Structure formats: C-alpha cells, structure tokens
Amino acid sequence: MAGNSIGQLFRVTTFGESHGPAIGGIVDGCPPGLHISADELQQDLDRRKPGTSRYTTARREADEVKILSGVFEGISTGCSIGLLIENTDQRSQDYSKIKDVFRPGHADYTYWHKFGIRDYRGGGRSSARETAIRVAAGAIAKKYLKEKFGMEIRGYLAQLGPVAMDKVHWNEVNNNPFFCPDPTKLDALDAYMRDLKKEGDSVGARVNVVASKVPVGLGEPVFDRLDADIAHAMMSINAVKAVEIGDGFAVVEQKGSTHRDELTPQGFSANHAGGVLGGISSGQDIRVSIALKPTSSISIPGKSINLDGEPVDMLTKGRHDPCVGIRAVPIAEAMLAIVLMDHLLRHRAQNLDVVCNTPDIARLQDE
Amino acid sequence: MAGNSIGQLFRVTTFGESHGPAIGGIVDGCPPGLHISADELQQDLDRRKPGTSRYTTARREADEVKILSGVFEGISTGCSIGLLIENTDQRSQDYSKIKDVFRPGHADYTYWHKFGIRDYRGGGRSSARETAIRVAAGAIAKKYLKEKFGMEIRGYLAQLGPVAMDKVHWNEVNNNPFFCPDPTKLDALDAYMRDLKKEGDSVGARVNVVASKVPVGLGEPVFDRLDADIAHAMMSINAVKAVEIGDGFAVVEQKGSTHRDELTPQGFSANHAGGVLGGISSGQDIRVSIALKPTSSISIPGKSINLDGEPVDMLTKGRHDPCVGIRAVPIAEAMLAIVLMDHLLRHRAQNLDVVCNTPDIARLQDE
Amino acid sequence: MAGNSIGQLFRVTTFGESHGPAIGGIVDGCPPGLHISADELQQDLDRRKPGTSRYTTARREADEVKILSGVFEGISTGCSIGLLIENTDQRSQDYSKIKDVFRPGHADYTYWHKFGIRDYRGGGRSSARETAIRVAAGAIAKKYLKEKFGMEIRGYLAQLGPVAMDKVHWNEVNNNPFFCPDPTKLDALDAYMRDLKKEGDSVGARVNVVASKVPVGLGEPVFDRLDADIAHAMMSINAVKAVEIGDGFAVVEQKGSTHRDELTPQGFSANHAGGVLGGISSGQDIRVSIALKPTSSISIPGKSINLDGEPVDMLTKGRHDPCVGIRAVPIAEAMLAIVLMDHLLRHRAQNLDVVCNTPDIARLQDE
Amino acid sequence: MAGNSIGQLFRVTTFGESHGPAIGGIVDGCPPGLHISADELQQDLDRRKPGTSRYTTARREADEVKILSGVFEGISTGCSIGLLIENTDQRSQDYSKIKDVFRPGHADYTYWHKFGIRDYRGGGRSSARETAIRVAAGAIAKKYLKEKFGMEIRGYLAQLGPVAMDKVHWNEVNNNPFFCPDPTKLDALDAYMRDLKKEGDSVGARVNVVASKVPVGLGEPVFDRLDADIAHAMMSINAVKAVEIGDGFAVVEQKGSTHRDELTPQGFSANHAGGVLGGISSGQDIRVSIALKPTSSISIPGKSINLDGEPVDMLTKGRHDPCVGIRAVPIAEAMLAIVLMDHLLRHRAQNLDVVCNTPDIARLQDE
After folding, report:
1. So where does FMN get bound (chains A, B, C, D) (predicted)?
2. pLDDT band at A366, cuts 50/70/90?
3. Residue C321 to residues A144, C175, C197, D255: CA-CA distances in angstroms?
4. Which residues of B lie inside 8 Å of D (Cβ-Cβ)?
5. Alpha-carbon dihedral angle through residues C246, C249, C254, C257, given to the nearest 10 degrees
6. Given pLDDT bands bounded at 50, 70 and 90, which one contains residue A224?
7. What is the ipTM of this complex?
8. Which of A161, B232, C164, D67 is an S-S bond match for A203, by CB 3.0 to 4.6 Å?
9. pTM higher than 0.90 for the full model?
10. A79 contacts C352? CB cut-off 8 A
11. Which of B346, B347, B350, B352 to mutate to test the interface with D (most CBs of D within 10 A)?
C-alpha cells in the first residue's frame, strides 16, 4: 500500500525510478513565509550528486531541481510544493542483461516476488537515485529550522571499512570528497579506496549526524517518539542496517550510574542519551549514528539464480560507488531535518512554546 | 499531537499511566474469524509481568487483561477490540517526594518542559507499565501470524552487561527468569545480578528477536519499508537506544563480496541482510537486535535539579528492575509481531499473494 | 482496516458494542492544561442519554463516563485520555430471534457479508450506542474551544417529518425533549409523535448545527478542507444521509450575484457560504444541516430474508426511538466540535495566529 | 498542515497552482499489473478540459498528462505513479488587478487570512484547475475497478438552475456539452445559458453520480464508513456545498416503513439507502448527488474590500464558466472512483473476499 510518504505535518511524498524520465516529490505542510529558491536546494543536492569524485559512481546527473508550486515570488505560500528532477544520463542499455536474473544483495528478488513485475533498469524504484528528492525536501526543512530556531543539522563520515575517524572538525567536513571530519585520515581513506577499486569490491561505512540547538519538547510519546521516528527515517535510507541514538549499543555494558546524564543548574553534565529522554528532545544535541552496508554491485562474480530458479554467475557492471556510505551524509542530514521539522510542527499544534535556551554543557566539541 | 498509535491497518492505540486507575488500548484492524481469548493474551502478559523473580521489580500486578469488544463468542468480528488492565498495586505515596525534582536519566525533565504538567507518580505515562498493553495487542498479532502462516516470533536475552550468550537454544529461553537461551551462562547471570543489586546499580542489555517463516514481499518502499517500520517500533520501546537488522553495525567493516547473500536454486546461502532486501522481506528469518539502557532508577545518589533549577541530590527509591532489558523480551516480540501483522495486511490489500515457501538455507539454527 | 478513528491531531478512537460489557474510547492530542472532569462530560452525555422522555428508546442506561488517564489532578496532561462507559442495561435475550435474519434497512446484511460474523445483539458495533463516546470526546473539544476562543457549538431540531421549525430561539432548545428551538411547534411535535407511536412507525428529521466565533483560517486545502472534514464527520453519524454547508442544495437554483457574500469594511453582508470559502473558515458562523433517516426498527412487519436466503416476515421488537434524529443533536454538536478542534491544532502547527475577531454581520439571529 | 492527500491505501497527493509552471500529483498504492497509458487518462481529462464549448471558460489548455513513474512497459509496477500537466495558457497579466482586493465569494479572503500570503493569479491553489489531476488519478481507479470487477462509475448533470432533468439516458450523457442525460432538455439548457451569459451572471447545478456493480462489503465503520468518505471526497471538490447519499434530504419526511429497503430472495426491493447500510456497501448502486454553487466570478459588479479593509467595487474579468457544475461531472466520477478504490484495497487487506454478485432489483434504469 501507499508507502512513499514520510511525516505527518511536514509530509514528503516521492516518486520516480532510476531510469524513468524524472524523479520528483511533494512537500506538504511547509509553513508560509519561508524564502525558498531552487538554488538553495541545489546546494545540498550538489553535495549528494554522483560523479563528483573518483570515489563515487561515474554516472553524471545534473540533478537540477525545479520548484513547480507552493512558492510565490520566492516565498512559500503554505500550499504543497512540487519538486522535479529530470533524469538526463539514463543509459538503459547497460541494464538489459540483468532483466532475467536477481543480483545478489539487491532488491531485485524481493521486488519481483512482491509485485510480479519490476523495472530492472538500474534498480528502478529501489535505486538510491530516489534519495535526491529527500535531499531537496530536507533542504527546505533545514532552512526553516536554521532560520527560525538556529538549529544546525550536520553529518560526517565516522568510519569507512577499517578507517575510523578520531576527531570531529566540523569545518573540514565539506573540504574533502569523503565528508571526513578528521584531515589526518584522508590519506588512509584515499589509499583504502584505491585498493578497493582495484579489487572490484565495496565496503560499508558509519555516518554520524548531529542536530544542535534543538528545542526542548519535540517528540510525541508513546509511539511517535522523536527517537523512534528518527530510527524510522534513518532505516528508510537505502543500505542502512542499524541506527543508534546517543551511546547506542554501548549502553549494553554500561551501568545506570554511568549512563544517566546528571542535571546541574548549568545544564546536563553529559549526553549519553543523545538528546532524547522518554522520546522527547531534552535540548541537548541529538546524536545519531547509522551503519551502511557495502553495495552489492561489485565486479567480483557472485552466484545467483534467474527467474526460472536456475543458477547463474553474476557480474554486476554499470557505474557504482565502492562505498555508498559516503554520499549518504547529506541524505542522513535531510532525513533528520525532515523528522525534526515534522515534530516541531506537531509540538506547536498543541500551542506549546518552542523553547531553545537549554544550556548544553555536553555539546559535541570541535576542538 | 496524537502519538499514541502504531500501525496503519493493524493499528494499536494505548492509554494509561503507571498509577492511574487502569491502562488500556484499542486494536483496530484485526481480521474477523480469529479465535481470541483473554487467557491466551494473558500468557504473554505473564511473561512480562513484574514481580516474577527477584531480578525484576517487586511491584506486584495481576496484569489481568479484559477484552471489552470486538470478540463475539470467542471469535474476532473485525470490529475494534478494547483491552483493559486495571492497576491494582499503585502505592502513590512512594512518589510524592519526586514531585518537584527531575530524576536524572528519566523523562521527568522532558515531560515537564514539553507539557508544563506531569503525572509524577511512577513516571506517569512514561512508565514502562504502558508496554503491558503492547504485549496484549502483540499476542493477537502473533496468534494470527502463527495460525494463518506458521510464522514464529521469538526473542531472547543476548547480552546482559558483560555476560554475552554464546548459543541459542530456543527451548531453554522460557525455562529461566532471564529469557536466556544459553544455560551455561545462567550462573554468571545470577552472580552478576546479585552483585549489581548489592551495589544498588543497574545495567544495560541486548535483546535479539527473530521472526521465522515470514512470507516474501512484506514492506512498502520507499519510506514504509519493513526494516524502517521495525526500527520505529523497536525504538518506541522504553529504554531502547539502538536497533540493528541482520548484521547491523558489523556491516561497517564488511566488504560487498562478503555481505551480499548469494542465491542458489536451494535458497539464499547466507543471511547477512537479516531477511530484508530493499525494504521488503525476502522470506529469510527477520533478525533484529536492540540495545536497552540501564534504568536510571538506582539507589546510588545522583545530582539533579528541582523545578526551580536548584541543585538537589537524588536517590531514587521505589521498586525497580536492575536490568529492564530482561523483561523487554516479550515486548520486543510483541512489537515485531505488530509490525509484521500490519505489513501483511498492507501487502494483501494490493491483492498480492502471501507466499511462505521460500527455502531458507541460512535460517538461525538451534544446535 | 482500521476505521475506528477520526481526526489527525485531535484524534478520537472508539470501541464497543451495544450489548458488550462496555464501550469506550481514546482521545489523543488534547493539549495539556485544560480542566476536565467526568461531571462536565456527563452533562452532554445526559442530553444524548436514552430513556429521558417518552419519545426516545425505553432502554435505560446510566451512561456514566469514567476518565481513566490523561487527566491529573483535574487537568489534562497532554497524554492520551481513556474513556469508559459500562453497559448496564443489556437485555441480550431480546435479540436472539434476529440471529439468523437480516432486519431490512439495518446494517445486519452488510456486516454479515463483509465480516462473515456479526454480533447481532442490538446491532452490535453498528448500534448508535457507540455515539455516546463521541459525545464525551466532543465535550472535551467543546470545552477547549469555548474556554480558549469563546467558540460556541450548538444544534437544534430543524424539522421532524412534516413539522418544520420557523424560528430559532437558542435558549429554548434545551427546555424540551425535542431540542426544538421554536416553542410554537411543540404541540405539533407532540401530536405527531403520538400518532407515529400508535402506527408503530418512525420518521426522519433534519438537524442544524451552528458554530459561532470560529477563527478565520481553519481548514487545509485541497482535500482536508474544513467543509470536507465536516461532511465526513456528519455522514459518519448513524442514520445520516445528507449534509449541507451554508445554503446547501438551495445553491442549485441560485445565481452568482445572489450567492456570493459581499464584503464590506464592517464584515460580510450575508452568509450563504456557511462560513467556509475555499475550504477555509471565514470567521462567519459555520452552518451545517444534516438529514437523518427514519429508523428501520419499527413494529410494522416487513419482508426480509434469512441467512439461507429464504423469505421471512420481520417484526422488529425491542426498544427504539421513533425518531432517532432527535437524540442526534448532541452527537452532531460533538462531531462538529471534534472537527473544529482538529483543524485548530492543524492550523496552529504552522505557527499561524488564531484570529477570532472577524466582524460577522450575517450571524444567525435569535430574535 | 499537510492536507493535499486523499485516501489511505490508494492515496492521491496533488500540487500546483492555476498559473504556475505545472500541476501534478502522485498516485500511491495502485496495485501492480494494471495496463495504464497516458492516452487513457487523457480521455477523462478531455471531458473536463476547459474551452470545449461556448458554455465553459475560454481558457484553452491542452491538459496533456504525462506519466513519469510507476508504469513500466505500459504496466503498473506497484510503485508510486507521478503525474504532470504543464500549464500552457497562463495569461498572468489578467490577474494583477486583483492583487490587493478580495473577490467576494472566492477563497481570496480566507487564503490571505490563513497564510498571510497568496498566489492571486487565477486563484492560485484554490483554482479548480487543480481538479485536472484528480481526474487523471480517478481514471486509474476507474480502469482498475472496471477491469477487475466490472464496476461502472458514471455521472450526469441532474439540474442546472431551474432546468431539472426528467430522465436518465446514460448513452446520451457524453453526446452533449452539458453531460445532460435527458435530450428533451437540451434546448432549455441552451436558452438558459445564453440568457445567463447575456446577464453576465452564473448559476448553480446538481450533479448525480452512480456506481454500479459495487461489491458488497466496502466501508470501514464507524468513522471511515463508505458514505462518510464519499461525503468527504465530494465536499472537497471546489464549489460543492451539499452531498446526498440515496434519498438524501428526502428522508426527513419519510417514514421508516417507506424508507427501509426490504429484502427478498431476489435482492433488495428498492434502493432508498443509495447502496450503503451501516456505512458498508450493500451491492446495490451507490447513488450520490451533489450541489455546486454558482461561480462568484461574474461580470456584474459587487462590493468588496481591499487588503486595507477599504471598500471597493469589484468586477471580475477573466474567462470563467457561467456554470462550473457542468464540468464537475468527470471530477465527481473521479472522486467516487478514488474512494471506492481505496475502500476496495482496505477491504481486501483483511483477506475478505470481494463479492460482486448481489442481485440488484432496484438498479437505476435507462429506459
């Protein structure tokens, strides 16, 4: 059934396949009065865009977004915003060979068995290409949250295969093609990726996203908790297999005396919780971490079956990122922005004040 | 706004505070024709019930569930099912001391700042007591899935503090108060918990849940993916801070050649994906793992502030589980059942066959 | 699928059958800080209650509502509010005869064919008894709207069979068992009802509801228009077959020069539109009119069939209102209140001011 | 908040303003396997298209719909379907004069007061132009319902001002520009419209829609009843002020012995109910009637105010239909199709059979 929407009050609905004429979406619920231009959305889209470095897919897409409605003379009207990105570099001929086989690790098998039909060109609807519209929609949310509340939503590559970052220098993140916050690791990343490409293999990654200056009070217990909705949004990103809030899995071995963030008149003395208590934002930084699997599109042959259930040897050609986790950074930021925006509106519906002045001693530092 | 519902077609809505007269819920969307009795729901409720061992809270609740509607002569009618559990052991006097202070690590601070009012008795709505209704509702879903499709949804304690289980013997899980699947670890668990109680501290845990004989095709891309909805449901459980599907965070260091589950005419040759590809179930076991934080209600004093922002020393009295993760096992099973039930109905809406015969070579073994 | 909820942000979900142990509901999304007591809800319930006059069903129900959650020390907490009314006068024995037959004009036939099972006692879920919870939930909405914005939501019987009211004296409505606003018609109503009872027949009615001091701006185009949601809510009341906003069907023969409500610096010069323009409230009175069919439970024999499709002669016994439209007045008020409350919250979510000061020249007068 | 969607499982979301670059929408939840082409959607769009006769607006729009996704090699894939219609004849210059004034009877006043900003060109989002996408989406639903169940959804003009139709000849409806089912009235319609144009005035209309061969069992009590959702969908059409199901307002004066449709072994002996009992379809024809107000865009001057609240004399120029009700016929059909499609999917979710074989003695005849 209808599963292509996210959000209740700030609601994003998308359509489009990898090799169709266009992808697009509708942002419903954006408050009126926000200055929005296609150029601004384009900035985040360009960060996600394929073909920007030798580490990402060679597919070249302009990814030029058009705003078709909901913005009048540069200002949002409160009506639904139509977004459109035409697909320009489709190369459908690349994909005809995989028409009758299921690529291992892909959604080919499940789409086929669910729907009995699939657009096999480039993964069709299951392609990560769809996430471009998420980024455009997220850019609208980001702008609103920043402009009205000073909220900042930023992500970075925390680990790529064995290479884990040690430090977070926020102002370095956008200076390299890896969204890497630790410049001392750039050589290691470069070397690792070169080897990977030689092998024809791919690798997983960890991406962290942090929202700062979040108002206290966002989240609606008991099911639509802020953290539950974040988990949903993050796990809806292609290739994501795990989500952590705050200390995440480290809590398994923690004791209560360590984990509970004590309160002082100056604010919280730590942020193990990741900015959410009882499903409601505490005013501290929201800290989210996600794991992205290695893409299954690699040039090492693998076993699979065809539509008749007969064994075949597969070798995925086409142009693919050896680490899809890298380009996931702006996508994860967009999803967090969409969830926060939605919950901000939900909070405000009850005529509750939006308060942003919580002191936050434990805020993630950029040393 | 309205956040007390989960599910689209199989929709569970709950109400009730820890120390109010009752907790309850409505299950809307249960198909007609299912045999349901309060006794059957009670079986799962008894597994979650407090006061069953010296390792869980001493609060004693009968947790007796009543079915008020939607079942006629023992059979579901397709109409909404009303569920009610009266609170019998409320002891409100225990809680009057915490009226004006925020217990560190609890939802006191966030509920107060969000709503400007809170039912402080036992955590009010933020108490895990609310999950009893989830278990009752989940038992309905479990029964339907088992009866119609042979689906089996089972959980166990995978780790408690430093004690990690090595083996999974499914038939041992319900033979001990820990939901522990590895009998060789029972002594270690017992010793660890005894020490913990002496310290007055608490500890985190990891719980795994597995759904077997899941039909192929459940899940609605691109936002309402099966794994995204599982992540949402799991993160909505009190104290959960992380969720993994399949290999979870281990994928960060995996290569594509390892991670992708190859296909053979006999079925998948591995299950790194955890039974979900492209957001749709593959027919393999759904493997979910969650992390539960240590409860913040411990008898070691901690720093906090009162409503006026002044520093106070807190010492949480009352009756609390030293490891809330243990009792989370039936809750996690219930949430997984609710999500699968919801997606089964969503799948069927499109007149798609429900197919359960996928060979599953990699199914989790009980050796 | 799940169809027992109404509203997005102020969401009411109900359960319960005519002859089950209880009916109940959950109100989710009520803002915190509202003084609510069971006594206040009871006042509207008592207006709807059966057995209050010789013109309504002889069934006697205390209809005593209990608030089980969401209200702490008399004040709403922002958490879900559980409502419960126990069924005390059930007399199941009355209904065993209709177990195997379909009463003409009732939902027996459709429930049976939809679900393959039905609780035949008193109509089960299809009984108007369910509306008691709507009235209780609506009373919460009414109180909020009145207290915060001065909104007034009032209904009256506009026509009963051939007896149409000529004038609307608001302060007469609750002084008679008919909710009749025109005292000159009371004798005619009384005579008509006496004759009807003698015949053993029933009759339809028209009920009007008016909301005054409605803020400008409520309603979300293009599908969730205020008038569209009002139409939905009204048509969801048992026995309602038609809904009008403003001039309703009279517009068919109107010209544009007559219908359009001109604007002057002092306000609108008329209210043909019924307070809604383009799906958004204009600040004028919302005027709604509904038609309720005559109940099919009459003591005049009728033709029908049994479960085997064989012809039977039916004679509905039991205790029934000869005009169900009368008791629909508080129900219609409740539904209008629920819709306005929901849209008020939706409006406010976008940080839009709630403005109530529109001059309204054309407001319905009580001369 | 987000209000631009309709339907739960067959969900239509739209965007676009009268004078923006394009209007569009997303149809989410269409089952896979349906043959769909833009040409087929175009047929219904052409019936709604402006500029087809001298009785409708002179605006000329190609209204050419493009399918951007969700259809692969002519067959629906189960993924979201993107629809786009470019606006070609926009003439924005016509509208600059009304920038600072509120046209009486239009949504100008309410959009302005709600949002604080409005796209004044041609009514912006409040323009009926938006309904073109409804027609395209409805054509998909219509095709599915017809192909899989033989359902037929057809509308006609029942009354235009004082001219009421006496007979319904279905095969005449599409032979004249009025969707008039009674050829004996064509001259009267023609004369009336000519006079109306001379006066510069407009008039209201009544449109009837009938769905035949509807399966028994569609509709989800107690709030999402089939008739309640039909009322919502119909009232969401621009200019609609009233909705009737079956006998509608005539029930006010009916007696129960007349209204209740008796059952015989051969089927229902009448259809006063309009095909819905207890909110669930009975298998009889669904009969719906709606009233459309006269457009307020007329060339007779009217009083209004400007943004500063000062009085102005308004004279609406531009190109407008003297009776918007005429072109509402395909729109009303589309909305009924969307609701029935949605409820068909909802019904099927519970694994309930879709049964279409109810004998229907009272079906509306075309003599």
Report:
1. 125-127, 238-239, 278, 293-297, 319
2. very low
3. 55, 19, 10, 13
4. 8-9, 29, 31-32, 78-79, 221, 345-346, 348-352
5. 30
6. very high
7. 0.96
8. A161
9. yes
10. no
11. B350
